[in-house]
Design a protein that fits this description.
The chain has 2 helices and 8 strands, in the order αββαββββββ. The chain has 136 residues and is α+β, with helices and mostly antiparallel strands.
């Protein structure tokens, strides 16, 4: 009888752990990391470079168009890429550490991650850095 009771207690404890994990995941308490594309962490969206004019919005830099620079980087890195369907701009997100902790990059200036979605559904990310010496 004691063996059966301890088995029931073990099953109940296991079920409580599983239920708690499911609730935490369902409630968003377990945060999923930002997508990593081509080694870049794609963070929250920025309203930069939608046109080929300099953009002085927060985090966008006040230099040559972010879109122009991003397209140039795409051409240099993947010269035979398909036609671009959309190009969006993002803050650099955090990176997962070896134990799942958040690792943030710090640097002077600002880094914009440009995410290109191509007509074939593939995607690539490039970075545009704006700081001392302009944007590149």
């Amino acid at each position: 009888m004691a063996g059966t009771r301890s088995l029931v207690n073990a099953i109940q404890a296991w079920a409580a752990v599983v239920l708690t994990a499911c609730l935490l995941a369902g409630c968003g308490w377990v945060e999923e990391g930002p997508p990593i594309v081509d080694g870049l962490s794609v963070g929250p969206a920025l309203d930069c470079g939608a046109c080929d004019q300099p953009n002085t919005s927060d985090g966008c830099g006040a230099c040559e168009s972010i879109a122009t620079l991003a397209r140039r980087h795409l051409e240099e890195t993947w010269p035979d890429h398909p036609e671009i369907h959309s190009l969006t701009f993002h803050r650099e997100g955090w990176y997962p550490g070896p134990s799942g902790e958040k690792v943030l990059q710090t640097r002077s200036g600002s880094l914009v991650v440009a995410l290109a979605i191509f007509v074939d559904g593939s995607r690539h990310a490039v970075s545009v850095y704006c700081g001392v010496g302009g944007c590149h």
